[in-house]
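Figure 6 in text form: structure in, sequence out.
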């Protein structure tokens, strides 16, 4: 029976966290605390101020809607700045450590072409729905598109901050979840 025995090669254990980030649990907890406290400091006064300006529902008043959307813009900046403060600034890292770097492939015109293509597809889709007699219900209040303030803030949030935050937050949320998992497993 020796002819049927086989020995498997021994795999060397991989180095744990070969690309280990220099920030630790303390930095992650401080950044989360700053975001939570900053959210409370910004949203409560913004909501009270928007409610004071609103004549009826906040969604129906352009000024109140601009105040609430402006608070959202500030919160996006707070989230990004807390990440920069506890990584790039504290440890003198490059922006690439946060996943923010120049594209490896394509040119800077590629995102503009993709934006135009995506918007064209969306406009074609809604045109076809309109021709078919279907009017979809939007998540945004109707007042958002009748005044310049909400439109400008929505454009900045959608076109500038959403892609950056998506590219930063999603890949690095795994680090936070892994740190929480290890802490709970030890505990």
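Output sequence:
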């Amino acid at each position: 029976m020796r002819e049927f025995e086989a020995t498997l090669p021994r795999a060397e254990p991989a180095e744990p966290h070969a690309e280990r980030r220099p920030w630790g649990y303390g930095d992650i907890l401080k950044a989360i605390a700053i975001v939570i406290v900053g959210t409370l400091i910004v949203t409560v006064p913004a909501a009270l101020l928007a409610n004071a300006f609103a004549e009826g529902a906040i969604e129906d008043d352009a000024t109140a809607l601009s105040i609430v959307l402006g608070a959202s813009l500030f919160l996006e900046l707070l989230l990004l700045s807390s990440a920069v403060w506890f990584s790039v600034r504290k440890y003198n890292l490059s922006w690439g450590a946060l996943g923010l770097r120049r594209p490896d492939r394509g040119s800077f015109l590629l995102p503009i072409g993709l934006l135009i293509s995506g918007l064209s597809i969306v406009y074609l889709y809604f045109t076809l729905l309109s021709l078919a007699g279907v009017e979809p219900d939007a998540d945004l209040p109707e007042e958002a598109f009748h005044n310049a303030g909400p439109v400008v803030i929505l454009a900045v949030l959608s076109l500038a901050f959403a892609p950056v935050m998506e590219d930063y937050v999603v890949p690095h949320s795994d680090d936070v979840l892994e740190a929480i998992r290890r802490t709970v497993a030890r505990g």
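Caption detail: The radius of gyration is 24 Å.
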